[in-house]
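User: structure tokens for this one?
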Amino acid sequence: MMTLMEPVNIKQTTLIAFAAVILSALPAWAHHAFAAEFDAKKPVHLEGVVTKVELINPHSWIHVDVKNANGTVTSWMVEAGSPNVLLRRGFTKTTIAPGTPVIVEGFQSKDGSMRANGRDITLPNGQKLFLGSSGTGAPYDEKK
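Assistant:
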């Protein structure tokens, strides 16, 4: 335990303060507005099979393999709302298992990669779930 009479290690104090600033900025950096990464003028319609579902913060990801007209397969990463948002809409860990055929409507990333911001996902039974988060600036943002 440090008393008022002990010398303060300036290097150690500076390092701790710097680490605290960097770590506190990570959540803000990780969360972004729709327009920062996705293009509202590049809608995508994906029909494929789910390969993986990641319910992680700040955004969940659904991985979908889409078969192209020439028979090749393109793997897409579809960004969805946070796990909490999805759970409130009835989306659980077991809602979409790997191997499930789905239809995804969304918007492609600005860099043209095989990433999209998902708006809706339609399950084989016809159930449609809203994937987005409100307040992101995405087209058809869910209003409360």
